[in-house]
Design brief:
Distance between the termini: 76 Å
Oligomer: single chain
Strand content: 15-25%
Number of helices: 17
Structural class: alpha+beta
Largest sheet: 8 strands, mixed
Strand order of the largest sheet: 5-6-7-8-10-9-11-12
Length: 492
Protein backbone atom coordinates (compact mmCIF):
# COMPACT_ATOMS: atom_id res chain seq x y z
CA UNK A 1 0.00 0.00 0.00
CA UNK A 2 1.48 3.33 -1.03
CA UNK A 3 1.44 6.56 0.96
CA UNK A 4 -1.42 8.14 -1.01
CA UNK A 5 -3.67 5.14 -0.34
CA UNK A 6 -2.86 5.33 3.38
CA UNK A 7 -3.67 9.04 3.47
CA UNK A 8 -7.02 8.45 1.76
CA UNK A 9 -7.90 5.66 4.19
CA UNK A 10 -6.99 7.80 7.21
CA UNK A 11 -9.18 10.59 5.85
CA UNK A 12 -12.06 8.14 5.40
CA UNK A 13 -11.51 6.76 8.90
CA UNK A 14 -11.70 10.23 10.46
CA UNK A 15 -14.90 10.95 8.53
CA UNK A 16 -16.53 7.69 9.66
CA UNK A 17 -15.46 8.13 13.30
CA UNK A 18 -16.72 11.73 13.40
CA UNK A 19 -20.09 10.50 12.14
CA UNK A 20 -20.27 7.93 14.94
CA UNK A 21 -19.27 10.46 17.60
CA UNK A 22 -21.92 12.99 16.57
CA UNK A 23 -24.64 10.30 17.08
CA UNK A 24 -26.79 11.74 14.27
CA UNK A 25 -26.74 8.66 12.03
CA UNK A 26 -29.53 6.14 11.56
CA UNK A 27 -29.06 2.57 12.77
CA UNK A 28 -28.39 1.43 9.21
CA UNK A 29 -25.75 4.13 8.68
CA UNK A 30 -24.10 3.29 12.02
CA UNK A 31 -23.87 -0.40 11.09
CA UNK A 32 -22.51 0.43 7.64
CA UNK A 33 -19.89 2.80 9.09
CA UNK A 34 -18.71 0.22 11.62
CA UNK A 35 -18.48 -2.46 8.95
CA UNK A 36 -16.43 -0.20 6.70
CA UNK A 37 -14.09 0.71 9.58
CA UNK A 38 -13.51 -2.97 10.32
CA UNK A 39 -12.70 -3.56 6.66
CA UNK A 40 -10.13 -0.77 6.75
CA UNK A 41 -8.57 -2.19 9.92
CA UNK A 42 -8.29 -5.58 8.27
CA UNK A 43 -6.45 -3.99 5.36
CA UNK A 44 -4.18 -1.77 7.42
CA UNK A 45 -2.88 -3.21 10.66
CA UNK A 46 0.14 -0.89 10.79
CA UNK A 47 1.43 1.59 13.42
CA UNK A 48 0.23 4.56 11.38
CA UNK A 49 -3.36 3.43 12.06
CA UNK A 50 -3.02 2.65 15.77
CA UNK A 51 -4.41 5.99 16.92
CA UNK A 52 -7.46 5.70 14.65
CA UNK A 53 -7.99 2.09 15.72
CA UNK A 54 -7.98 2.96 19.42
CA UNK A 55 -10.29 5.92 18.80
CA UNK A 56 -12.78 3.61 17.08
CA UNK A 57 -12.45 0.88 19.68
CA UNK A 58 -13.17 3.43 22.41
CA UNK A 59 -16.63 3.77 20.85
CA UNK A 60 -17.35 0.07 20.32
CA UNK A 61 -15.00 -1.82 22.66
CA UNK A 62 -13.87 0.64 25.36
CA UNK A 63 -12.26 -1.98 27.60
CA UNK A 64 -10.07 -3.37 24.81
CA UNK A 65 -9.24 0.18 23.75
CA UNK A 66 -8.09 1.10 27.27
CA UNK A 67 -5.94 -2.02 27.63
CA UNK A 68 -4.37 -1.55 24.19
CA UNK A 69 -3.73 2.10 24.97
CA UNK A 70 -2.04 1.26 28.29
CA UNK A 71 0.16 -1.32 26.54
CA UNK A 72 1.57 1.43 24.32
CA UNK A 73 2.54 3.73 27.20
CA UNK A 74 5.68 3.82 29.34
CA UNK A 75 3.60 3.12 32.47
CA UNK A 76 1.93 -0.21 31.74
CA UNK A 77 3.01 -1.76 35.07
CA UNK A 78 1.40 1.14 36.99
CA UNK A 79 -1.93 0.78 35.14
CA UNK A 80 -4.69 -0.44 37.50
CA UNK A 81 -7.33 -1.19 34.88
CA UNK A 82 -10.44 -0.07 32.99
CA UNK A 83 -13.57 0.87 34.96
CA UNK A 84 -17.09 2.12 34.39
CA UNK A 85 -17.96 2.58 38.08
CA UNK A 86 -16.19 5.12 40.31
CA UNK A 87 -16.43 2.97 43.45
CA UNK A 88 -14.67 0.03 41.83
CA UNK A 89 -12.00 2.33 40.42
CA UNK A 90 -11.30 3.95 43.81
CA UNK A 91 -11.02 0.55 45.48
CA UNK A 92 -8.54 -0.68 42.86
CA UNK A 93 -6.40 2.45 43.10
CA UNK A 94 -6.30 2.79 46.88
CA UNK A 95 -5.60 -0.88 47.64
CA UNK A 96 -2.18 -0.52 46.00
CA UNK A 97 0.54 1.05 48.11
CA UNK A 98 2.39 2.75 45.25
CA UNK A 99 1.33 5.38 42.74
CA UNK A 100 -0.81 4.28 39.81
CA UNK A 101 -3.39 5.28 37.23
CA UNK A 102 -6.64 3.95 35.81
CA UNK A 103 -9.25 4.84 33.20
CA UNK A 104 -12.93 5.59 33.80
CA UNK A 105 -15.33 5.38 30.84
CA UNK A 106 -18.81 6.87 30.39
CA UNK A 107 -20.71 6.27 27.12
CA UNK A 108 -21.82 9.91 26.84
CA UNK A 109 -19.11 11.86 28.68
CA UNK A 110 -16.11 9.96 27.33
CA UNK A 111 -12.93 9.21 29.31
CA UNK A 112 -11.26 10.23 32.53
CA UNK A 113 -7.85 9.24 33.89
CA UNK A 114 -7.49 8.93 37.66
CA UNK A 115 -3.94 9.34 38.95
CA UNK A 116 -2.57 8.61 42.43
CA UNK A 117 0.37 11.04 42.74
CA UNK A 118 1.90 9.41 45.84
CA UNK A 119 1.17 6.56 48.28
CA UNK A 120 -1.97 7.13 50.38
CA UNK A 121 -2.92 10.30 48.48
CA UNK A 122 -6.27 11.26 47.01
CA UNK A 123 -6.54 10.75 43.25
CA UNK A 124 -6.09 13.55 40.74
CA UNK A 125 -8.80 13.41 38.05
CA UNK A 126 -8.74 14.65 34.46
CA UNK A 127 -11.65 16.31 32.68
CA UNK A 128 -14.02 14.17 30.59
CA UNK A 129 -12.92 13.84 26.97
CA UNK A 130 -10.92 11.70 24.57
CA UNK A 131 -8.57 9.08 25.96
CA UNK A 132 -5.59 10.73 24.27
CA UNK A 133 -6.46 14.13 25.78
CA UNK A 134 -6.76 12.58 29.24
CA UNK A 135 -3.37 10.94 28.79
CA UNK A 136 -1.80 14.28 27.81
CA UNK A 137 -3.23 15.69 31.06
CA UNK A 138 -1.60 12.81 32.96
CA UNK A 139 1.74 13.57 31.30
CA UNK A 140 1.44 17.18 32.51
CA UNK A 141 0.87 15.91 36.07
CA UNK A 142 3.80 13.52 35.68
CA UNK A 143 6.04 16.41 34.68
CA UNK A 144 4.85 18.37 37.72
CA UNK A 145 4.97 15.65 40.40
CA UNK A 146 7.21 12.92 38.86
CA UNK A 147 4.88 10.46 40.57
CA UNK A 148 4.91 7.43 38.25
CA UNK A 149 7.90 5.22 37.57
CA UNK A 150 8.33 3.89 34.06
CA UNK A 151 8.21 0.15 33.43
CA UNK A 152 11.98 0.19 32.94
CA UNK A 153 12.53 1.85 36.34
CA UNK A 154 10.17 -0.56 38.11
CA UNK A 155 11.88 -3.61 36.60
CA UNK A 156 15.31 -2.28 37.54
CA UNK A 157 14.24 -1.61 41.14
CA UNK A 158 12.80 -5.14 41.39
CA UNK A 159 16.09 -6.62 40.15
CA UNK A 160 17.97 -4.53 42.72
CA UNK A 161 15.77 -5.85 45.54
CA UNK A 162 16.37 -9.44 44.42
CA UNK A 163 20.14 -8.87 44.36
CA UNK A 164 20.02 -7.43 47.88
CA UNK A 165 18.02 -10.37 49.27
CA UNK A 166 20.57 -13.02 48.21
CA UNK A 167 23.43 -11.91 50.57
CA UNK A 168 20.99 -11.76 53.50
CA UNK A 169 19.80 -15.32 52.86
CA UNK A 170 23.39 -16.50 52.53
CA UNK A 171 24.22 -14.90 55.86
CA UNK A 172 21.28 -16.63 57.56
CA UNK A 173 22.31 -19.99 56.11
CA UNK A 174 25.86 -19.44 57.40
CA UNK A 175 24.55 -18.70 60.90
CA UNK A 176 22.32 -21.79 60.83
CA UNK A 177 25.14 -24.08 59.68
CA UNK A 178 27.43 -22.61 62.31
CA UNK A 179 24.76 -23.19 64.97
CA UNK A 180 24.34 -26.81 63.88
CA UNK A 181 28.09 -27.43 64.16
CA UNK A 182 28.13 -25.76 67.58
CA UNK A 183 25.27 -27.94 68.80
CA UNK A 184 27.01 -31.07 67.58
CA UNK A 185 30.14 -30.05 69.48
CA UNK A 186 28.01 -29.69 72.61
CA UNK A 187 26.55 -33.17 72.02
CA UNK A 188 30.05 -34.61 71.63
CA UNK A 189 31.21 -33.01 74.87
CA UNK A 190 28.11 -34.21 76.70
CA UNK A 191 28.59 -37.72 75.37
CA UNK A 192 32.23 -37.74 76.45
CA UNK A 193 31.16 -36.81 79.96
CA UNK A 194 28.73 -39.76 79.98
CA UNK A 195 31.37 -42.20 78.55
CA UNK A 196 29.33 -42.83 75.38
CA UNK A 197 31.37 -44.37 72.57
CA UNK A 198 31.95 -42.48 69.31
CA UNK A 199 29.77 -44.97 67.42
CA UNK A 200 26.88 -44.08 69.69
CA UNK A 201 27.51 -40.40 69.08
CA UNK A 202 27.12 -40.98 65.35
CA UNK A 203 23.76 -42.63 66.03
CA UNK A 204 22.55 -39.49 67.76
CA UNK A 205 22.82 -37.60 64.48
CA UNK A 206 20.92 -40.21 62.47
CA UNK A 207 17.28 -39.41 61.60
CA UNK A 208 14.73 -41.32 63.66
CA UNK A 209 12.52 -42.02 60.62
CA UNK A 210 13.55 -44.84 58.31
CA UNK A 211 14.15 -43.52 54.76
CA UNK A 212 13.39 -45.42 51.59
CA UNK A 213 16.46 -45.13 49.37
CA UNK A 214 14.30 -45.51 46.29
CA UNK A 215 12.77 -42.05 46.92
CA UNK A 216 15.65 -39.56 46.91
CA UNK A 217 13.44 -36.46 46.88
CA UNK A 218 11.67 -37.48 50.08
CA UNK A 219 15.02 -38.36 51.64
CA UNK A 220 16.47 -34.93 51.03
CA UNK A 221 13.37 -33.19 52.34
CA UNK A 222 13.34 -35.33 55.50
CA UNK A 223 17.01 -34.67 56.20
CA UNK A 224 16.44 -30.96 55.68
CA UNK A 225 13.51 -31.03 58.07
CA UNK A 226 15.52 -32.83 60.76
CA UNK A 227 18.44 -30.46 60.39
CA UNK A 228 16.11 -27.53 60.79
CA UNK A 229 14.54 -29.07 63.89
CA UNK A 230 17.99 -29.40 65.46
CA UNK A 231 18.45 -25.64 65.55
CA UNK A 232 17.62 -24.10 68.88
CA UNK A 233 14.73 -21.55 68.58
CA UNK A 234 16.76 -19.13 70.69
CA UNK A 235 19.55 -19.33 68.13
CA UNK A 236 17.11 -18.56 65.30
CA UNK A 237 15.84 -15.50 67.15
CA UNK A 238 19.43 -14.43 67.72
CA UNK A 239 20.21 -14.82 64.01
CA UNK A 240 17.12 -12.84 62.99
CA UNK A 241 18.00 -10.15 65.48
CA UNK A 242 21.55 -10.00 64.17
CA UNK A 243 20.43 -9.61 60.55
CA UNK A 244 17.81 -7.03 61.49
CA UNK A 245 20.44 -5.07 63.38
CA UNK A 246 22.73 -5.04 60.35
CA UNK A 247 19.89 -3.96 58.08
CA UNK A 248 18.99 -1.09 60.38
CA UNK A 249 22.40 0.58 59.82
CA UNK A 250 23.04 1.21 63.47
CA UNK A 251 19.61 2.41 64.57
CA UNK A 252 19.05 2.49 68.29
CA UNK A 253 16.50 -0.26 68.90
CA UNK A 254 15.50 1.26 72.22
CA UNK A 255 14.46 4.46 70.46
CA UNK A 256 12.26 2.63 67.96
CA UNK A 257 10.71 0.29 70.51
CA UNK A 258 9.75 3.17 72.79
CA UNK A 259 8.38 5.35 69.98
CA UNK A 260 4.56 5.18 69.67
CA UNK A 261 3.24 4.14 66.29
CA UNK A 262 0.52 6.80 66.33
CA UNK A 263 0.27 10.47 67.18
CA UNK A 264 -2.87 12.52 67.75
CA UNK A 265 -3.04 15.67 65.62
CA UNK A 266 -6.08 17.42 67.03
CA UNK A 267 -9.05 15.43 65.63
CA UNK A 268 -6.90 13.20 63.42
CA UNK A 269 -4.82 10.14 64.25
CA UNK A 270 -1.52 10.06 62.36
CA UNK A 271 0.60 6.98 61.70
CA UNK A 272 4.36 7.40 62.27
CA UNK A 273 6.77 6.08 59.64
CA UNK A 274 10.51 6.20 60.27
CA UNK A 275 12.29 7.60 57.23
CA UNK A 276 14.78 4.98 56.04
CA UNK A 277 17.52 7.40 55.04
CA UNK A 278 17.54 8.86 58.57
CA UNK A 279 17.71 5.58 60.53
CA UNK A 280 21.37 5.99 61.45
CA UNK A 281 20.96 9.63 62.42
CA UNK A 282 21.15 10.73 66.03
CA UNK A 283 17.89 12.63 65.48
CA UNK A 284 15.23 10.21 64.24
CA UNK A 285 12.80 11.64 61.70
CA UNK A 286 9.27 10.36 61.17
CA UNK A 287 6.74 11.09 58.47
CA UNK A 288 3.11 11.33 59.60
CA UNK A 289 0.33 9.80 57.50
CA UNK A 290 -3.34 10.58 58.15
CA UNK A 291 -5.09 7.54 56.70
CA UNK A 292 -8.61 8.75 57.55
CA UNK A 293 -8.17 12.01 55.61
CA UNK A 294 -5.57 11.40 52.85
CA UNK A 295 -6.69 14.54 50.98
CA UNK A 296 -5.02 16.64 53.69
CA UNK A 297 -1.66 15.36 52.48
CA UNK A 298 -2.27 16.91 49.07
CA UNK A 299 -1.43 20.33 50.50
CA UNK A 300 0.68 19.64 53.63
CA UNK A 301 3.15 16.96 54.77
CA UNK A 302 3.85 16.50 58.50
CA UNK A 303 7.19 15.36 59.93
CA UNK A 304 8.27 14.72 63.52
CA UNK A 305 11.88 15.09 64.61
CA UNK A 306 13.33 13.29 67.63
CA UNK A 307 12.11 10.41 69.72
CA UNK A 308 10.88 12.38 72.74
CA UNK A 309 7.19 12.74 71.95
CA UNK A 310 6.11 14.20 75.27
CA UNK A 311 6.81 17.87 74.60
CA UNK A 312 6.43 18.34 70.83
CA UNK A 313 3.12 20.26 71.10
CA UNK A 314 4.81 22.92 73.25
CA UNK A 315 7.51 23.56 70.66
CA UNK A 316 7.10 25.72 67.54
CA UNK A 317 5.94 24.13 64.31
CA UNK A 318 8.25 25.03 61.43
CA UNK A 319 6.15 25.60 58.32
CA UNK A 320 7.77 25.78 54.87
CA UNK A 321 6.57 26.51 51.33
CA UNK A 322 7.85 23.81 48.98
CA UNK A 323 8.30 24.36 45.24
CA UNK A 324 9.75 22.40 42.33
CA UNK A 325 12.78 23.29 40.24
CA UNK A 326 10.66 25.51 37.98
CA UNK A 327 9.32 27.58 40.87
CA UNK A 328 5.85 25.99 40.98
CA UNK A 329 4.21 25.45 44.36
CA UNK A 330 3.98 21.83 45.53
CA UNK A 331 2.71 21.94 49.13
CA UNK A 332 3.49 23.04 52.69
CA UNK A 333 5.89 21.10 54.91
CA UNK A 334 5.31 21.09 58.68
CA UNK A 335 8.13 19.99 61.01
CA UNK A 336 7.19 19.14 64.61
CA UNK A 337 9.50 18.60 67.57
CA UNK A 338 12.59 20.53 66.39
CA UNK A 339 14.72 21.97 69.20
CA UNK A 340 15.63 25.26 67.50
CA UNK A 341 15.39 27.16 64.18
CA UNK A 342 18.85 26.10 62.97
CA UNK A 343 18.03 22.43 63.47
CA UNK A 344 14.68 22.94 61.71
CA UNK A 345 16.25 24.67 58.69
CA UNK A 346 18.86 21.93 58.29
CA UNK A 347 16.26 19.19 58.60
CA UNK A 348 13.80 20.77 56.14
CA UNK A 349 16.55 21.39 53.61
CA UNK A 350 17.67 17.78 53.92
CA UNK A 351 14.09 16.61 53.42
CA UNK A 352 13.75 18.79 50.36
CA UNK A 353 16.84 17.73 48.45
CA UNK A 354 14.83 16.93 45.31
CA UNK A 355 12.87 20.20 45.41
CA UNK A 356 13.36 23.70 46.80
CA UNK A 357 12.15 25.74 49.75
CA UNK A 358 10.76 29.23 49.22
CA UNK A 359 10.54 30.23 52.90
CA UNK A 360 10.26 28.88 56.46
CA UNK A 361 8.16 30.33 59.27
CA UNK A 362 7.36 29.19 62.80
CA UNK A 363 3.91 29.01 64.33
CA UNK A 364 2.54 27.56 67.55
CA UNK A 365 0.76 24.22 67.41
CA UNK A 366 -2.27 25.78 69.09
CA UNK A 367 -2.64 28.17 66.14
CA UNK A 368 -2.05 25.56 63.44
CA UNK A 369 -3.98 22.65 64.98
CA UNK A 370 -7.43 23.93 64.02
CA UNK A 371 -6.53 25.06 60.52
CA UNK A 372 -4.53 22.53 58.55
CA UNK A 373 -7.34 20.54 56.90
CA UNK A 374 -7.72 23.11 54.07
CA UNK A 375 -5.00 24.88 52.12
CA UNK A 376 -6.86 28.20 52.39
CA UNK A 377 -6.73 28.03 56.20
CA UNK A 378 -3.01 27.22 56.19
CA UNK A 379 -2.40 30.20 53.91
CA UNK A 380 -4.24 32.56 56.28
CA UNK A 381 -2.35 31.26 59.33
CA UNK A 382 0.97 31.33 57.47
CA UNK A 383 0.51 35.01 56.61
CA UNK A 384 -1.22 36.27 59.76
CA UNK A 385 0.17 34.29 62.72
CA UNK A 386 3.49 32.77 61.62
CA UNK A 387 6.88 34.45 62.15
CA UNK A 388 9.56 34.49 59.48
CA UNK A 389 12.58 32.24 60.13
CA UNK A 390 14.23 32.07 56.70
CA UNK A 391 13.42 32.89 53.10
CA UNK A 392 15.14 32.42 49.75
CA UNK A 393 16.57 35.22 47.67
CA UNK A 394 13.89 36.96 45.56
CA UNK A 395 11.24 35.25 47.70
CA UNK A 396 7.70 35.40 46.40
CA UNK A 397 4.85 34.06 48.59
CA UNK A 398 2.18 31.71 47.21
CA UNK A 399 -1.61 32.06 47.32
CA UNK A 400 -4.06 29.13 46.86
CA UNK A 401 -6.04 29.08 43.63
CA UNK A 402 -9.34 28.88 45.53
CA UNK A 403 -8.89 32.38 46.99
CA UNK A 404 -8.51 34.16 43.64
CA UNK A 405 -11.33 35.69 41.57
CA UNK A 406 -10.19 34.78 38.05
CA UNK A 407 -12.15 37.49 36.23
CA UNK A 408 -9.90 40.32 35.07
CA UNK A 409 -11.55 43.76 35.30
CA UNK A 410 -9.12 45.84 33.23
CA UNK A 411 -8.14 44.32 29.89
CA UNK A 412 -4.64 45.02 28.54
CA UNK A 413 -1.84 43.11 26.85
CA UNK A 414 0.39 41.27 29.32
CA UNK A 415 4.02 40.36 28.80
CA UNK A 416 5.01 36.70 28.43
CA UNK A 417 4.90 34.67 31.66
CA UNK A 418 6.80 31.72 33.08
CA UNK A 419 6.35 29.69 36.28
CA UNK A 420 8.12 32.30 38.42
CA UNK A 421 6.00 35.20 37.14
CA UNK A 422 3.75 36.40 40.00
CA UNK A 423 0.09 37.38 39.89
CA UNK A 424 -0.67 41.01 40.70
CA UNK A 425 -3.74 41.04 42.95
CA UNK A 426 -6.02 43.59 44.58
CA UNK A 427 -7.71 42.77 47.87
CA UNK A 428 -11.00 44.58 48.31
CA UNK A 429 -13.54 43.74 50.97
CA UNK A 430 -13.48 39.93 51.21
CA UNK A 431 -12.42 39.25 47.61
CA UNK A 432 -9.05 39.01 45.89
CA UNK A 433 -9.14 40.05 42.23
CA UNK A 434 -6.61 39.83 39.42
CA UNK A 435 -4.98 42.96 38.03
CA UNK A 436 -2.27 41.16 36.02
CA UNK A 437 -1.83 37.42 35.55
CA UNK A 438 -4.03 35.85 32.87
CA UNK A 439 -1.02 34.47 30.99
CA UNK A 440 0.45 33.10 34.21
CA UNK A 441 -2.80 31.30 35.06
CA UNK A 442 -3.00 29.76 31.59
CA UNK A 443 0.43 28.07 31.88
CA UNK A 444 -0.85 25.18 34.00
CA UNK A 445 -4.42 25.53 35.32
CA UNK A 446 -4.02 22.59 37.75
CA UNK A 447 -1.55 24.38 40.06
CA UNK A 448 -2.55 24.47 43.73
CA UNK A 449 -1.09 27.94 44.41
CA UNK A 450 0.60 30.79 42.56
CA UNK A 451 3.31 33.35 43.42
CA UNK A 452 1.75 36.75 43.96
CA UNK A 453 2.11 40.45 44.74
CA UNK A 454 -0.75 41.91 46.78
CA UNK A 455 -2.22 45.41 46.78
CA UNK A 456 -5.04 46.40 49.15
CA UNK A 457 -8.00 48.66 48.51
CA UNK A 458 -7.82 50.40 51.89
CA UNK A 459 -4.42 51.85 50.93
CA UNK A 460 -6.22 54.18 48.55
CA UNK A 461 -5.97 52.04 45.42
CA UNK A 462 -8.94 52.16 43.03
CA UNK A 463 -9.63 50.56 39.68
CA UNK A 464 -9.77 54.02 38.09
CA UNK A 465 -6.25 54.74 39.34
CA UNK A 466 -5.00 51.40 38.02
CA UNK A 467 -6.62 52.13 34.65
CA UNK A 468 -4.81 55.49 34.38
CA UNK A 469 -1.44 53.89 35.19
CA UNK A 470 -2.02 51.08 32.68
CA UNK A 471 -2.86 53.61 29.95
CA UNK A 472 0.54 55.31 30.44
CA UNK A 473 2.56 52.09 30.02
CA UNK A 474 3.59 50.62 26.67
CA UNK A 475 2.21 47.14 25.97
CA UNK A 476 2.95 44.37 26.62
CA UNK A 477 2.96 45.29 30.32
CA UNK A 478 5.23 43.49 32.77
CA UNK A 479 3.77 42.47 36.16
CA UNK A 480 6.69 43.72 38.26
CA UNK A 481 6.81 47.04 36.40
CA UNK A 482 3.08 47.64 36.88
CA UNK A 483 3.39 46.83 40.59
CA UNK A 484 6.25 49.33 41.02
CA UNK A 485 4.35 52.04 39.16
CA UNK A 486 1.31 51.60 41.41
CA UNK A 487 3.49 51.62 44.54
CA UNK A 488 5.22 54.77 43.31
CA UNK A 489 1.87 56.45 42.67
CA UNK A 490 0.73 55.64 46.24
CA UNK A 491 3.92 56.98 47.81
CA UNK A 492 3.74 60.20 45.76
Amino acid sequence: MNVLEKVMLIKELNFLIDGLEQRSLSFFEIARSKTRIKEIFALCDEPIFKKQIIKFKSQTQPKIAALDFADQTLFKLSFRGFFQQENALEQALYQHKNSGWATLYHPKKGWQIWLIPAPERTALISEWGDLDDAYQWMMAQQQLYACLKTDYELKNSQNLIERQIVPVLTEIETHINSSIETQRDHQFNAASDLNIKPVEIALLDEPLIQIDSSQPSEQSSTISANQTDMVNPVVIESIAGSVATKESHGIDSNVVSHTPQRLQLNAYTAQLHLLQDREASAQQLFKLEIASQPEILQHIDFFLQGSDLQDWANRPVYLAEQMDQYGRFIKYLALLGADNPIQAIDCLRELDDHHHLAAIKDISWNDLSDGFSRIEDIFQLYNQKANSVWQSEDYMPFIPTQLIQNQKFIQFEESAADCRTPLLLLKERQKIRIIHGQKRLSLLPAEAAYPYLMLERHHGITWQMIQRIVSRLNPPIDCQKLYKEIQKHISD
